[in-house]
Design goal:
This protein is of the alpha+beta class. The chain has 2 helices and 3 strands, in the order βαββα. The radius of gyration is 12 Å and the shape is globular. Pfam families: SRP19.
């Protein structure tokens, strides 16, 4: 895998409310958001004080035919907690 040491991958599918857990959603539907974009994930990570790196040409493994992209962020605690923080920040930004 092309992850850098000490970084975790955040796929938009992890926080997409339209997906089921089996389709890749990593947080509760209540915490998830509709149609998250790579740019929103990057902005939320930056607002949380994380250095985010976008990889727009990557394919989510469960949907290999679609380039959804992914974001690499420094590992900071549990991955699920980090994903929830990012989703919460996006909800806040959307108003």
């Amino acid at each position: 895998m092309s992850k850098k040491e000490g970084r975790v991958v955040i796929w938009p599918a992890y926080i997409d409310a339209a997906r089921s857990r089996g389709q890749g959603r990593a947080i509760s539907k209540r915490d998830a958001i509709d149609k998250p974009s790579i740019d929103e994930i990057i902005m939320a990570a930056m607002e949380l004080g994380l250095q985010a790196e976008a990889q727009r040409d990557k394919h989510y493994p469960k949907e290999w035919w679609e380039k959804s992209g992914r974001v690499l962020v420094p590992k900071r605690g549990a991955k699920t907690a980090l994903v929830k923080e990012i989703a919460k920040m996006i909800k806040k930004r959307r108003g």
